[in-house]
Amino acid sequence: MLENLPKNYDPKDFEDRLYSFWNDNGYFTPEINKDKRPFTIMMPPPNVTGSLHMGHALNNTIQDILIRWKRMEGFEALWLPGTDHASISTEVKVVEKLKSEGRSKEELGREAFIEEAWEWTHLYGGTIKNQLKKLGVSCDWSRDRFTLDEMLSNAVEEVFIRLYEKDLIYRGDRIINWCPSCHTAISDAEVDHEDSHGHIWHIKYPIKDSNEGIVIATTRPETMLGDLAVAVHPDDERYSHLVGQTVILPLVGREIPIIADSYVEMDFGTGALKITPSHDPNDFEVGERHKLGQFIVIDEDGYINENGGEFRGLERFEARKIVAEKLKEEGFLVEVKEHDNAVGHCERCKTIIEPLISKQWFVKMEPLAKPSLEAYYKGELNFVPERFGKIYVHWLENIKDWCISRQLWWGHRLPVYYCDECHEIIVSKEPIHHCTKCNSDNIRQETDTLDTWFSSALWPFSTLGWPEKTEDLEYFFPTDVLVTGYDIIFFWVIRMIFSSIEQLGEVPFKDVFLTGLVRDSQGRKMSKSLGNGIDPLEIIEQYGADALRFTLVTGNTPGNDMRFYTERVEANRNFANKLWNATRFVLMNLDEEIKEPSIEGINLEDEDKWILGRLNKLKKEVKSNLDKYELGLAAQKVYEFIWEDYCDWYIEMVKSRLYGDNKGLKESAQNVLVVVLKDTLKLLHPFMPFITEEIWQHLPGINKALILEDWPMEDSSMDFNEAEKSIEFIKSAIKGIRNARAEMNIVPSKKASLIFVTDNEDIKTTVEKGTKKFMTLASAESISFKNDKTSLGDDNISVVLEKCEVFIPLKELIDFDKEIERLEKEKDKYLDEINRVDNKLSNEGFISKAPAKLVDEEKAKKEKYTDMLNNVLERLESLKKA
RNA sequence: GGGUGGUUAGUUCAGCUGGUAGAACGCUACGUUGACAUCGUAGAGGUCGUUGGUUCGAGUCCAAUAUCACCCACCA
Fold this sequence. Notes:
Strand content: 15-25%
Radius of gyration: 37 Å
Helix content: 40-55%
Distance between the termini: 61 Å
Number of strands: 29
Mean pLDDT: 93
């Protein structure tokens, strides 16, 4: 066994091997077993052509921890992986690729373009899956899904048709966000608003048959070409006499009315607002109210169209400049001011959005939002952390209809057919060749595809075969928890919830665990353009997946952003190395005849009971933390247990037994060492799956893989209070002795005689039992006892403990000043403590209102510290006399 | 204009239901004892952004304020 564990931990030796071992044996694939409970997580599908970044690494690590833990707890744990076709972003990439080859989407035509996109998908798709495997994700690859799979596409069409038939999907001419670069409509959620420096122009519109004019304010003078009215507030006395009159639009000469509408803010700008229904969402609504009609002046490429008269053909920002200049020349421009406002940008390509009137498909949101809100209020949804619930509510309460049609080719084509004879609209999964109404064969299919989030919204059930009543769907749905970044609550989380409620009548998951963003060490968002992204694969290559996983899950808290420090990965790699070497130690000192290590029928020493008690407490706490999604706290506790309790203390305390010649003591130590290590590996496994599995398989008495083991449960028979107390006393005595010796610059290797001065029998017994420990851990040469210290001379170091004092005689001349200095420090420490306790105890309110237990504790502390202080004072007095 | 989060050791962050402030990294001193120098032992370092309030007691609850970050939003 031992020869298989090299001296240094090198994850590259086994991570890939173990991943294949698990995966090839089908350990990631659950069975449909009605006698066991399922636990399901749907992996947020990464973009099929994407590559792994730290955000993926973070949320997949969290999912893997949860799924491995639940699997060990005995659930049939399904973690379903997959990828997303990511319509717009993939299409943009393929278009770019074509462009670099001197080709274009248009010249290729739809079918050939989709071929190209599939090729691209096959070429770059799947790399992210291999990258995920490096991380150790235990997801069920036999159920791997892709949003454009036949099964999932079927679900998409089914939902579309159902919603259409319920009048929850409609088609209409509405003002939408148009990206002139991607050449498609996008939804509100896909628009990023960024503050930008700009100007506000005050323009005077002359009033017909009058010398008067009305001054309007605008940030987009070029849109005046499409003005259909000037609006003022109904209560605005400055303008009330003008309402109903006509204005002559400068430059173009068109006549438009002055209307009153309460949308106008009287105290902003001039209080008069130009209305351009075709190019501004608010103006659109005003236009609807006043039946102004439409007048489109900007086309889908962002150029002024034929309605723009002499400005026709100008690019929109060029037009802005020229229109403004022209207005100035002709004397209509009153003033130009600096002005900041939020401008909408395409989330994908950063182009400034152009609001346009366009015929698009929409999902009617209000009827869908309502049940989603109710589900939340009924407590069917639980956000971790809770505060995201508010964001969910706010969005749903202010929701607008969802524009789902995209003028793209890569994606799910709408199952919609138009009859050009009778203008019937037919929705159908099957291709339609004859109109169902007039039987004409003058039929064409809608060319638009669906928003990529339309298919992702169905992910929790489309992946399980819905609308078919599959066994998978029956058993694994609804899922248990969704783990994703808070940045896609609006895009994805909410849409999954309302889709699931609408189609299946229940929420798709109960818990929503939201992770923060992983930032660079300076707190900046990692991005390609900044070039500050840290590649998870490089980190894995250098430090191993376990170290990366541990880093991502500790030291941060759900929903909060974290900074990524390579130094932390290094520290966690060191932790893995520590565990590795602790195991080597255990195996090195394990007798061959111990085949099935166990603590059954074994005489446990105090230190054994102590470590078993600590382990038991750890099991309890880890379980409690995991139940509350406090993964970082759980991981931290396992870390501390291994490094401090197990390595620094237990192993050190047990060495004298292992090296000694008492066979019984030796064997019991060997058994306890292995038993504790095994349970610890189980507890650590979800966090560090590779190293724990590797070590596990080198231990004796193993009959199955760690990944399949049972989760260790708390056992109250493993609490040993007395033993714990004695070991804690011994620990504090050893620390005190080491401390004093270090302060006095006594070389650690130099052995010392220890004289314990105490009249407390329990302490005497404890110390006697712990003699070996003092020998090895406190470099003791001998141990003796005295009932009082009167006979002891001055050339000693004195270590004050509770109910006990330890004297260390010095062979050389003691540096009295230094010892006095050290004891003075001790004295101050106890004085501070006593002072603090006194303050509390002399507080009438504390005595009467604090719990009695607490008051007693404080009284006991006072007694203890006073006692210790007195010892220090006596010692000081004695030294000062000498 | 609304809303949320952060502000705790030199740095990055934990700190669950209020009861003597923790970790990691870094730093200082010492140490090649037969698991580990990817290590060990000991140590230094914090009036928990500010001001009030509730309480016997507040990093922890409440209010205000400063500052940074983010999200939402139709003031042209």
